[in-house]
Design goal:
The protein is built from nine helices and ten strands. By secondary structure, the protein is of the alpha/beta class. An eight-stranded mixed beta sheet has the order 3-2-1-4-5-8-9-10. It has a two-stranded antiparallel ribbon with strand order 6-7. α5 packs parallel to α6.
Length: about 240
């Protein structure tokens, strides 16, 4: 019987086994990376930009209009810069996609070239709203993250930062965000980088949660969190136990 390791070269099999033995909390230094935030003028994007910049990360906010991005960057301070989306993508090492679901596909289609070779973190939640509240939508590709991967074949697409309260992220009186961030992706090197970025924000922890095919249920959980927050007048996040 052939095992998966039998199909690998001896060196590749050795590397694969070594990766499994690695400490999952041994994460890379990401302090020197430039992070771009597409949709950085929206609540979620502004909040992430603010928290990462406050933690010492170099951050560029992207928007369809450079002037709007520059205004938002000026308001946030902390050395944040603003630029038109394509320039933001080109100048960044890591790009967070925090645009509204309605403009997700169109935005990424237009940025395929400047996002080529970049690590892309999709945090978009496909949701609908009616008189009964929020509910999850399922894109044809399976999830927003999988749609991003289909539209950006030359990028390294991951998914993370879905369950964060924009209110808490933007509140300067809140010193730390006590929550876990579920990180999904196809490459351990890439998900480790995203986990390390999450860990830059005080109180936050990035936890590997599977491959992109599992992104739909992570994105969908936001509909439940919205319901909880409305009922309890809270800003609920997610904490994972025994990890």
């Amino acid at each position: 019987m052939t095992t998966p390791d039998d199909a690998l070269s001896p060196n590749a099999a050795t590397r694969a086994k070594a990766a499994l033995r690695r400490d999952p909390w041994d994460l890379p230094d990401v302090s020197g990376l430039v992070v771009g935030v597409l949709g950085g003028t929206g609540d979620q994007g502004r909040g992430l930009a603010y928290r990462l910049a406050k933690a010492g990360q170099k951050v560029i906010i992207g928007s369809r209009a450079a002037e709007r991005a520059q205004t938002a960057a000026s308001e946030l301070g902390l050395g944040i810069e603003g630029a038109e989306n394509a320039e933001c993508a080109r100048r960044s090492d890591v790009v967070i996609v925090a645009v509204p679901w309605e403009g997700h596909a169109k935005t990424l289609q237009a940025l395929r070239e400047p996002l080529s070779g970049k690590l892309v973190i999709d945090c978009v939640n496909p949701l609908g709203f009616d008189k009964r509240g929020a509910y999850a939508l399922k894109p044809e590709e399976g999830s927003a993250a999988e749609q991003a991967a289909a539209l950006l074949p030359d990028s390294r697409v991951t998914a993370a930062f879905h369950h964060l309260s924009a209110v808490l992220l933007q509140d300067p009186e809140v010193e730390q965000i006590d929550t876990d961030v579920m990180v999904l992706g196809e490459s351990r090197a890439d998900t480790d980088l995203v986990q390390a970025l999450a860990a830059r924000i005080p109180g936050m922890r990035g936890v590997f949660a599977g491959r992109l095919r599992n992104a739909h249920q992570v994105e969908s959980l936001v509909a439940n969190l919205i319901s909880m927050n409305r009922r309890y007048k809270a800003h609920a996040g997610v904490r994972l136990t025994d990890v």
